[in-house]
Design goal:
The complex is a heterodimer. Chain A is mainly alpha-helical. Chain A has helices at about 1-15, 15-20, 35-40, 40-55, 65-90, 90-105, 105-110, 120-140, 145-155, 165, 170-190, 195-225, 230-235, 245, 255-265, 265-280, 285-300, 305-330, 335-355, 355-380, 385-410, 435-445, 460-465, 480-490, 495-500, 520-535, and strands spanning about 25, 35, 420-425, 430, 450-455, 470, 505-510. Chain A contains 26 helices and 7 strands. In chain A, helix 23 (about 460-465) links the parallel strand 5 (about 450-455) and strand 6. Chain B is α/β, with parallel strands linked by helices. In chain B, the strands form 2 sheets. A 4-stranded mixed sheet of chain B has the order 1-3-2-4, sandwiched between helices. Chain B contains 11 helices and 6 strands. Chain B is about 60% helix and about 10% strand. The chains are: A mainly alpha, B alpha/beta. At the A-B interface, helix 15, helix 16, helix 17, helix 18 and helix 21 of A face helix 5, helix 8, helix 9, helix 10 and helix 11 of B.
């Protein structure tokens, strides 16, 4: 997020076109980075436009405030988008419940805290809004909604670098689009050609068409316009393929059931109920939700970062589930018996009509009383008491959910990642501000053009807070450069010194946690440094050289 | 004078003897290499007894390395792991034999305990299998023994260790395993056959209940962490030091297989309970049946959700909330 802020600040100070042409020579020294073309522009564009609009209205807000508060604002908008989507799929009651769930659920709040200025906070809003517009256009079939959907989709993919239209993972979607067009053409031809002609034509076109499309896609991939499956996506399908640089990122790990429960609490146990009802009462828009849910649940279980994608659909389905339960139990039931009784009454009334009026009145009143008694007995088929108990238990589970979300958010997702805290044995809290102190030392005591070598985790922080040139950073786009740094960290002093002088390094930053018992330091990450270095320089770095006698 | 001549004769004889001995040694080396490579071409893993081991692997001089597996393959030894290791070792040796860089610099050999117990004793080996690398010059060091505890004995790992010790890269070629493909083909044939038999009545594909059950089963499998089990391969359960059986892993970072089954069952019970409650309240059936459904549903939801909450509590240290059970 520091990089995103730096890029946005650069754009606001220098203008949009200089930003697109920006070549940052203070990162990935000595290679530099073409930020303008390699960044996902959506985030910067959004905050830049908000900043511009506010300044035009003479409300002077610093870009830093906008960046910090962007995620909470957009998560509020996500709540509204979720409500709209669920309302389209099921009902307003379900919509309100789903909106309440997503407002609180830890799976989403963890990625949208104030200060986490990252693509995810806004991309999810764009996602839900696009899906709402999509469902609306499916339901109404109007061109207006369809065009608004595509505009919203365009907005969404600026956050992911236009990958949905250029990478081969998305070629399947393009293929379906082509197939739909082919189907429409076929239907039209059916109305103008005879059956025999049509069959021949159809088979011929099918073979030629399928072959042609395949050739085109392969050709595009070969030329390089369509990129082959990226490492991250490939590792989702083939979990045996674990390149060290991808396997080492904590967010790419598999998750246990504990993480599901931690992030979703009761929703993980109740959203299958919503799934059940969606399938049993299937229609066009619910097919979409079902597919979303099933694929989301698979991908979330293979990569913890994708839990964020699963969370909205879990909220929607859980909202549907609770809504059907509460609706069924809160509605006043109609009874079966009186309908048969009514018919009898009519017959009796007809009979009595012929007799005395007062007798008829008495008779009718008697019948009414009898019916009322019947109504009281058969009124609530399940019983008011039972339904009350059900509602109370459901509400108490929802209250538990609320408490759980509060506890999780305050304990796990509220600490700033750069200032740590530790607890002494007697319970007192120590604040560890070493990161910021180290960066401010760098910023105050080193020359402006000093080059700092550190492991890539700290790259953005050094560039953002210490304002010094770094060698590698969290972008992890150049694996061999990272391997070179890893080799320098893992070699003896002579060899490391020669690598560092080659790279013009002036200072080396190393995190050591031994004094405090901080377990996330560079020594803990050392084996990853060796692994990544071994990947590029297998004859110089060997993992087994670094193992102790007992392994 | 005569003494001088005799001394020269003696020197000449000595040098001749020396040369003869040298020739014998050189002959021995090239002879050995020749014998080894002849045998190795026929059988990539050479079987040595004690004498052959001393002659070929330990005998000097050498200009080749030997990778030796010390094993106990006789059935009476009951070493199942030796058999697995032997298969993997055979794979590496075969890959080396048929690789492009095949030369006389590296040989693969095997010493069985029943054929060469003296070797085991001399090297102070008391377990099997052991993989050792004997370099051309010098004695094997600690790293010349493959650390099976840490690395295992998969063919790829053996080849990597050989590459580390000898700088010879061997690309392990596993013969393609057709059993998976065969199973897939059989399955496809079954499915196609079933569909063909029912071709008049394909309505079962439209049956929503079947689809719903399938989707729910998939969801329960995923949310209980089956993918984690598939990749990380955790144990089924664990016996603690006190002798009790631990069904639930104590840390939040790991899980047992039986734990995932328990969680899947709990989730399924909660889902079933909630569906029963909703159906009971909205259907038009017999009243008493609906009441029973509602009560059962309520009980299921409340009890099993409390159970999963308490399991969650046991793993999340410091979590303060619980429902019905502690």
């Amino acid at each position: 997020m520091l990089f995103n802020y730096r890029a946005t600040a650069h754009m606001v100070h220098n203008g949009y076109y200089p930003f697109l042409n920006w070549f940052d020579e203070r990162v990935w020294y000595p290679l530099g980075r073409t930020v303008g073309s390699s960044v996902y522009p959506g985030l910067m564009l959004t905050s830049g436009s908000i900043h511009y609009i506010l300044n035009v209205l003479n409300v002077p807000v610093h870009i830093r405030e906008i960046c910090v508060f962007l995620a909470p604002i957009f998560s509020g908008l996500t709540v509204i988008a979720t409500y709209l989507l669920t309302k389209e799929v099921w009902s307003t009651g379900a919509g309100l419940l789903a909106a309440c769930f997503i407002a609180m659920v830890p799976g989403y709040t963890s990625r949208s805290v104030a200060g986490s200025y990252d693509n995810e906070g806004i991309a999810i809003f764009a996602l839900m809004f696009t899906y709402y517009l999509w469902v609306k256009s499916v339901k109404t079939g109007s061109i207006f909604w369809a065009s608004v959907t595509s505009l919203s989709y365009l907005y969404m993919i600026t956050f992911v670098g236009f990958q949905p239209i250029t990478t081969s993972e998305h070629m399947a979607a393009a293929g379906v689009f082509a197939l739909l067009n082919a189907w429409a053409v076929l239907r039209y031809l059916q109305s103008v050609m005879t059956k025999a002609d049509l069959t021949h034509f159809f088979l011929g076109v099918l073979c030629v068409g399928a072959g042609g499309v395949l050739l085109v896609v392969m050709g595009l991939t070969w030329i390089g316009v369509v990129a082959p499956w990226s490492g991250r996506i490939y590792s989702l399908w083939n979990k045996g393929y674990a390149v060290p640089i991808i396997a080492s990122v904590a967010e790419h790990q598999l998750i246990t059931w504990f993480k599901f429960f931690f992030d979703l609490h009761i929703l993980v146990a109740t959203f299958p109920v919503g799934l059940w009802y969606c399938i049993k009462n299937i229609n066009d828009e619910r097919v979409f939700i079902v597919l979303f849910a099933v694929s989301g649940v698979y991908f979330a279980s293979v990569m913890v970062r994708l839990m964020l994608i699963l969370t909205p659909v879990v909220c929607i389905l859980a909202g549907i589930a609770f809504s059907t339960l509460l609706d069924a139990n809160l509605k006043k039931e109609e009874s079966l018996q009186p309908q048969a009784g009514d018919c009898n009454d009519d017959d009796d009334d007809d009979e009595i009509n012929s007799s005395d009026n007062t007798a008829k009145l008495r008779h009718v009143k008697h019948k009414q009383q009898y019916n009322n008694n019947n109504n009281n007995d058969n009124d609530d088929g399940v019983g008011v008491f039972l339904r009350c108990v059900i509602i109370i238990v459901t509400l108490s589970m929802l209250i538990l959910f609320f408490l759980h979300c509060n506890w999780v958010t305050s304990n796990s997702y509220s600490s700033p990642s750069i200032v740590l805290d530790a607890y002494e044995p007697d319970g007192t809290r120590e604040i560890i501000d070493d990161f910021r102190e180290g960066y401010s030392w760098l910023s105050l005591n080193t020359p402006v053009d000093a080059k700092i070598m550190s492991w890539w985790d700290y790259g953005y922080q050094i560039t953002g807070m210490a304002n010094r040139t770094t060698l590698v950073d969290n972008n992890t786009s150049n694996n061999s450069h990272i391997a070179l740094v890893g080799k320098a960290m893992a070699s003896n002093e002579t060899r490391a010194h020669s690598i560092m002088t080659q790279l013009d390094v002036d200072y080396v930053l190393v995190i050591f946690g031994g004094l405090l018992g901080y377990s996330g330091d560079d020594l803990n990450k050392f084996l990853w440094m060796v692994s990544i270095a071994e990947g590029e320089h297998p004859d110089e770095i060997r993992r087994s050289d670094y193992f102790a006698d007992n392994g | 004078m005569i003494v001088f001549r005799e001394i020269i004769l003696l020197l000449f004889a000595l040098s001749a003897l020396l040369i003869a001995v040298q020739c014998k040694k050189e002959l021995s080396l090239s002879e050995r290499v020749q014998q080894l490579s002849d045998a190795g071409t026929k059988k990539p893993v050479l079987r040595f007894n004690g004498d052959k081991f001393r002659q070929y692997v330990k005998g000097t001089p050498r200009n080749y390395s030997t990778i030796v597996m010390f094993t106990a393959l006789a059935p009476s030894r009951q070493c199942g792991i030796c058999r697995h290791a032997h298969d993997e070792f055979q794979l590496v040796a075969n890959s080396w034999r048929y690789s492009q860089g095949y030369s006389n610099r590296l040989f693969f050999a095997l010493v069985d305990f029943d054929e060469g117990p003296d070797v085991f004793q001399a090297l102070r080996l008391n377990s099997a299998p052991v993989f050792m690398h004997f370099p051309a010059k010098g004695k094997p060091k600690k790293v010349d023994t493959l650390d099976i505890q840490r690395v295992g004995f998969a063919a790829e790992n053996i080849a990597r260790w050989v590459a580390e010790r000898t700088d010879i890269q061997i690309r392990v070629f596993r013969p393609p395993n057709y059993s998976g493909l065969l199973a897939l083909i059989v399955l496809l044939a079954l499915v196609v056959g079933l569909l063909y038999l029912r071709k008049n009545n394909l309505d079962f594909l439209y049956n929503k209940t079947i689809w719903a059950l399938g989707a729910l089963a998939f969801t329960f499998a995923m949310t209980s962490g089956q993918m984690w089990n598939h990749i990380r391969g955790p144990p089924f359960l664990q016996k603690t030091q006190q002798g009790n059986i631990a069904y639930i892993h104590g840390s939040s970072q790991a899980q047992f297989i039986v734990e995932t089954y328990i969680v899947a069952l709990l989730n399924a019970a909660v889902v079933l309970g909630m569906i029963l409650m909703t159906e009971a309240a909205s259907k038009r059936d017999d009243v008493r049946k609906r009441r029973i459904y509602a009560i059962i549903g309520l009980g299921l939801v409340a009890f099993f959700f409390s159970l999963s909450l308490s399991i969650f509590r046991s793993k999340a240290h410091g979590y303060p909330y619980s429902f019905l059970l502690k």
